[in-house]
Amino acid sequence: MEDQRYRQLRPLYGADFHTCFYCGCLATEFDFAPPQAHWQSFFVRQASADNLKLPCCRECRLLLTGCAMGLVEQRREWLQTKLSAKYAKAIGVYLKWNHNELAELDYGLRHSIGAGLELGEEAHRRANYQGYPYEVDGAVVAQATIKPLPISVFEQRFDTLKQALVAVSEQYRIPQAKLVEALAKHDNNLEAVVLAHQQQQADQLAKRQLQQACRQFAKQHGQSSRYVTNSVERYLDKDPELTVAEALDKLLSERILPRA
Predict the structure, then answer these.
(1) pLDDT tens for residues 49-72?
(2) In terms of residue numbers, what domain contains 134?
């Protein structure tokens, strides 16, 4: 029997018929805002509620079981948090990998990552779905599409994080997984992640060059490589403007030649 307390939300366009209003999947049942078991409480308290019956898929309906909110948009936000948490692993795979990288993997791993990519892409889309235009009792409601702010990385602009990750990974030769893992450390600032990665590479290169120069110096002057390296690092700590060559000259003139 039709519950007269609720108005029916109907898609405005045929393409959206039988579509879950929350995630975009096939709708097989209905959700109620507020839940039918809580309607009386909302009515007595005169609390904000849409009093809507809307198309919903089975999974979203089950995930909404614990949600007592009365507004559709509140229920959507609550649900999308649940979807993101439920499929966090798959969404992580989707963000960390792209199809171009799969060719480098062996068959088993390629199949596993590929499946995770597909599931993660679908889960990411569902967790960010913004609904569709609809009508209630003949009144049309144009569903506002919330478009995320574009992501800017060194003056390049991207519509989604996924697009930015793929492009940055290819351009700067940084594995996509490493980019995603570093985002949390840099307040989700992809540009800061790239700069930090480049600085790390520069530091590692400088360290290798220092060690190589110290080994050559130690061999030339009959010294311990560890002693030379430690001495040069102390010189550089005291005076960051010194070059490695200048630090080696100081070591030679102040410690090695006087002892000789």
Answers:
(1) 999 999 999 999 999 998 999 999
(2) 7-87+127-141
